[in-house]
Amino acid sequence: MVDLQREAGVLTGVAHRTGEEVPLGDVVLHGDRLTWNQAITKPLRLNLAFDMTVEGDTLKGTSKAGCLPASKVTDERRTVRTATER
């Protein structure tokens, strides 16, 4: 899961994986195309480059790690509840 937010005009984000949060780097939204980088250390150390298309509430695209083949990635928008809604 990825959380994105705009702070002072800059798009930032965090990826959530198995109990850890990984900050996203170079987050760019241009039209319906969303790209970012993230570094992971488990199960092995990799630098991932995501290239996604936003289609309504769906993200579809690829994640690429160095010279490895790209992997298909999809995700759905989830509504975040505030503390007062819980």
The rounded distance between the terminal residues' Cα atoms is 20 Å
Broad structural category = mainly beta
Question: DSSP strand (E) fraction?
Answer: over 45%
Gyration radius (Cα, Å) is 14 Å
Q: Low-confidence spans: pLDDT under 50, at least 5 residues?
A: none
Q: Report the major sheet.
A: 5 strands, antiparallel
Average of the residue pLDDT scores: 87
Major β-sheet strand ordering: 4-5-6-7-8
Count the E strands: 8
Helix content: under 10%
Number of helices, counting only DSSP H or I runs of 4 residues or more: 0
Please, could you describe this protein's structure?
- The chain is mostly beta strands.
- The protein contains no helices and 8 strands.
- The protein has a domain at 24-73.
- The protein is 0% helix and 65% strand.
- The radius of gyration is 14 Å and the shape is globular.
- The mean pLDDT is 87.
Name a few traits of the molecule.
86 residues, mainly beta, 65% strand
